Amino acid sequence: MARVEEADAHLVEDMEKAVTVLVRQANHPRLHDQLATRAGVQLDRGGYGVLTEIGEHGRFRLSDVAEQLELEVSTVSRHVKMLEASGLVRREDDPNDGRAALVQLTPLGRRVLRKLQVARRAWMRELVDEWTVAEREQFASLVGRFVEAGRAVSARNGKRR
Known about the structure:
The protein has helices spanning 9-26, 29-39, 45-57, 62-69, 73-85, 107-127, 133-156; strands at residues 60-61, 89-94, 97-105. With 161 residues, the chain is mostly helical. A three-stranded antiparallel sheet has the order 1-3-2. β2 (89-94) and β3 form a beta hairpin. α2 (29-39) crosses α6 (107-127), α3 crosses α5 and α3 (45-57) crosses α6 (107-127). The radius of gyration is 19 Å and the shape is globular.
């Protein structure tokens, strides 16, 4: 595998700048608000992240949600309480540990999450609308590799992502 050489340092700098802008744009409160409006739902950004994580894992311990999102349990608990109050998730005692709670999406939570995912994917289609299928395939492949490399580096450094 080719190593990044000093001569290619400018490429790493360009990638770092592009990823920083991409993350900032994708997580911008205004974009979230626009997508929530498109989806016809009201949900704050933090709630969306927690809802998405629970949706990906089904029935999930609160502490596991926090670990996956790299947030404090108290922060996730606050979001879960708001999601519960909105009828989007339900919490139940963990049968294996009476001190722990399991959370899962309600049918309404699944519908809301799906609407937000549809809106986010429509936004992404807008971004790559003029790209060829081959360019979109290459981008998806490279971003996937980038994410997996990030997980591997984090794991080597003792962090779970």
